[in-house]
Every structure is written in C-alpha cells, then in structure tokens.
Design brief:
Largest sheet: 8 strands, mixed
Structural class: alpha+beta
Order of helices and strands: HHHHHHHHHHHHEEEEHEEEEH
Number of strands: 8
Helix content: 40-55%
Number of domains: 2
CATH class of the largest domain: Mainly Alpha
Radius of gyration: 24 Å
Number of helices: 14
Distance between the termini: 60 Å
CATH topology of the largest domain: Endonuclease III, domain 1
CATH architecture of the largest domain: Orthogonal Bundle
Amino acid sequence: MALEEVKNWFLANRREFPWRENPSPYEVWVSEVMLQQTRASVVVPYFLRWLTRFPTLEALSEAQEDEVIKLWEGLGYYSRARNLLAGAKEVVANYGGALPDTLEELLKIKGIGSYTAGAILSFAFHKKAAALDANVMRVLARYTLFQEEVTRGRGKLEKRLLDLLPEEEPHIVMEGLIELGALICQKEPKCSICPIASNCLALEKGMEGELPLLLKRKETVTLHRLVACIESEGFFLLKKNEKGKIMADLWEFPFVEKGEKSLELFDKLLGVKLTLQRELPLEKQFFTHYKVLLYPNYFLSDKKPVEGYEWVLKKDFLKLPFSSGHFRIARELLKDEK
C-alpha cells in the first residue's frame, strides 16, 4: 500500500489535538481555518472557546460579527473569521446547515479554498482528497524529487498526492503527511528518523536541503509607530477601523509614524493637549510583509470630542476586539485595575 509507513508512523506518534477526535465537518472547517498561518499549540484554546460559544454551524450563523471578531482576537488575519461567519450563513441558507461533501460544492462557500475543501473531505468525510498545505508540499517535493517551484506547480503536486494516497483509509495517510511535514520533514529535515527516508528521491540524490523550490519572499519592512494611550476621567481615546481596511472593525489607540515631531503630529491629528505620564512596554505587530514596532505612551488629556475617535471606558476594553498589538497595550493598561 502506498505510504503505509506514514500511516503506521502517524498512528504511533501523532499529537493529540481536540479537533482530531471524531470531528464533525464543521469542527474540521473551524480548526483548519484557525490553523492557517498559526501554530497548532496556539490554536487549541481558541478552538475550545469557539466551540463553547458556537457549538454548531447554525449557532455561528446567528452570531454578530463583533462577537466573532472579539472571540478571534489575537489570532490575526481577521478576514478568516469574517469568512467563517459569512460561509456559515451561506451553508445554512443553501445547504440546510450541513457542509456538502463534494469539492465542487465546498468551493462555492465563502472562505473555503482548495486546501480547506480537501481537508474537510478527507478528515470529516474520509474521502480520498488532497489537503495540500506547506507541510505536505515540502514532503512531496522531497519524496518525489519535484524540482519546480511548488506554488506554481500545485496542480502537479496534487495529482502526485492523489496517486500516492491509498484507497483504504486515505484520510489517515493524508493527516500523517501533514504531521510528517510538521515534525520530521521540516525546513531542516530530520532524515535519520523519517519513516519514508528509504524511498525519498531527494535524500537518495543528496538534494533534501535544496527542495522544495520556493518563490523568493518579499523583504519584510519594519515600521516604527508612536502610540498615544490618552486617558481622561477614566475614558481612553480609541478608533474603530473602517470596513474595507486591513484592520477593519478592530479598535486601536491613536498612532503616528515615530519621529522627532511625533507629538506635534498628535496635536494636529487630535486637537487635544497631551500631558505625558510614562512610557509603556514596546509591542510588536506582524503582517504579511510588515513588522510594526509600537511605542506606546500614557498621556492625560481633557475629554473633548475628536472626530473619528470615541472616548471608551477602560473597563470596556474587555468587550472590544483590538488589533493584536493594541490588544496587548490595552491589557497592559488594565493591569492598573488589579
């Protein structure tokens, strides 16, 4: 049987995660979306909290977007949460609340791409389907000596994957390949303990360190921002980002690009007199091609209306969904309450 060694290795070594024990299609969908761009260990508490609040697809479909975003707070890439909500509404409206079990129908649902669809078909419906994530691409590129750039060659890799998957219990091998890539066939492969090393073509030719071939990533740009945490009478000045922007519907403190005249920019932006009290710890925020360093400072000010901003009670921070870096700043401010 193709890749029988992967199946045996996986059953003996697999990590325990809450989404791996007889998951429903809905649970597979939620877990796979959360796992995009995020480590499994980070996802576990989010997944458990999500299912406590939205135990079924129908429950999610009835949720308010603000609550969904708040529950997602800290995971980043918030479009994933919005797409889950929109997709749940579609499934209830068009499929009677049950995720379909065909690739064609799954791909019609908001937020479900080829990988997520393959994962649902494989892990929930136990069908022979390709769930081709970065881990599996890495394993296949080495195992089959695939010498094209993997993103551009995705279609060819999917065909190779389907050819390798067995007819019986293909979902176990599929999940095993993901686990193999996560634990063994990493960027620096651990070939000495790999269960399929004896048949790996890249290892045979000494090319395991050269594959997979990847597109050159854009350089990360570092941004430096001065953040103003402005308090007046127990209220703080906050702004909710507009829909359509990168941090849509998330709350943030006022900020400007850091420089010699940052405080002058705040005066011009906000029109309120600021009295500096103290500096707060540096925070970092990451985007696809950006690293943002946040330099928060705590100010006192008069409580005057500021266009585009709202004065929010500090105790209400816990109710609002913040962008990740600003969430940590808000948490630092809340320490004063303890």
